[in-house]
Amino acid sequence: MSLKRVRLELARTPDHPTGSSSHGYEFMAPLDERGHLASSEWQRQKGACTVRRFWAGADDEHGALIHRRDGSWAFSYAPGENDDEPIFKFDRHRFVVGEYVTITEHDSVPRPFRVAEVAPAIRRA
Asked: So what's the pLDDT on residue 122?
């Protein structure tokens, strides 16, 4: 299992009928050989499991991939704040190019995102 960088881009929505590569997320997470989240490895590498939310016309947001007390997964930008973005069945998804995942964003709207890229993570010294 190795740490991967995953890029999610907004899939088709009423506001973006063809999707958008200018709206999405890049996150780091340990994935197994089939593209599933390696939960036990996340515990060992959670400090490296970061997220960047990019949205055209807005500043990037930086945070972390967290495992919440209720067993769900989310992107969190300010620890202890009510800003988490839950990810529907995150631990059941395969993060391979072309697959989809739903994220409930700050405005409480669940939106579909397409896995656009999966690459080895590059750690900075």
From this structure: 76
